From TrEMBL:
UniProt cross-references to Pfam families, sorted A to Z: SnoaL_2
Superkingdom classification of source: Bacteria
Name of this protein: Nuclear transport factor 2 family protein
InterPro entries (alphabetical): NTF2-like_dom_sf (IPR032710), SnoaL-like (IPR037401)
Gene3D superfamilies (alphabetical): 3.10.450.50
Domain SnoaL-like: 17-111
Organism field: Streptomyces malaysiensis subsp. samsunensis
Length: 118
């Protein structure tokens, strides 16, 4: 942990991050995408999705392909407009369990960039 990183609880996450994670966990693609800037970028599994239409296709595929549950493990504020959330996913995907880091970059109250990686 560096000097400019602060640990915090799920309740202290930026509202837009809470809305995105809740929508994603509830498989609500439209609500999740409403948390994003129009030119947002998501990087997941080595693939980059740019713009709302591409991200909505990715979200729709992600929520329909596997059944899984998530558990919040922790969060860090990495800067004034950046935070990382760590969640454990358990489900019917290869491996069955994985801890993922969701690295959010915010722009004017919306998510402009998200990197999801172990």
């Amino acid at each position: 942990m560096t000097d400019n990183t602060t640990l915090f609880a799920a309740t202290d996450l930026p509202d837009v991050v809470k809305r995105y994670l809740t929508a994603h966990n509830e498989h609500d693609v439209k609500a999740a995408s409403a948390s994003l800037t129009p030119d947002a970028t998501v990087v997941d599994g080595g693939h980059t999705y740019e713009g709302i239409p591409a991200i909505e296709r990715w979200l729709d595929r992600a929520v329909s392909e596997y059944t899984y549950t998530t558990a919040f493990l922790g969060a860090e504020q990495d800067g004034p407009d950046r935070c990382t959330v760590t969640q454990r996913l358990e489900g019917n995907f290869p491996g069955g369990t994985v801890d993922l880091r969701y690295r959010f970059t915010l722009d004017q109250g919306l998510i402009s960039h998200l990197i999801i990686a172990p």
